[in-house]
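EI: anyone free to look at a 171-residue chain?
SC: sure, send it
EI:
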Amino acid sequence: MASRDRSFVIPFVGLKLGKHEFDFEIGDEFFESYEYAVIQHAKIQGKLILEKKETMLIGEFFIKGTVETTCDRCGGEMELPIKGEFRLIFKFEDEDSEDENLVSIGSDAYELETADHFYELITISLPSRSLHPEGECDPDVIEKLEEHSVEDEDNDDIDPRWAALKGLNKN
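SC: here you go
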């Protein structure tokens, strides 16, 4: 659980009905408060457009920036651009909702904690594989990979149950 960073807390009780925009700088210190964060270094702009209504708040979260990670092909450091958005509805009710886009915040709530929602958006915006653009991987590592890779030979001795799997990892 993240420690409470007050810069990500929005006191909505004093806001007028309608839309309000909030901007956030999300950097290294943001991820330090998450014990098992997959991201250590980042430069991300966060934006929340919060629409206040009588019985709910509608939040549209946006992120855009870069995170530092390692290339899954060569292991070299790289900056990975990320971008994402999602919408959450915060209802003033005390019962928890089973809908993942609906968050119950309690009828007596007066502020909205947004850090965990930004963290979730950043995490789900990461690609499943991080790769340098073609030709930018460490040439020494690529040479070693090619040297030790198994050649795709036509081998009649392959068990037919496994032969269908040969082309799965060609992307």
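EI: The chain has one domain: 6-150.
SC: 👍
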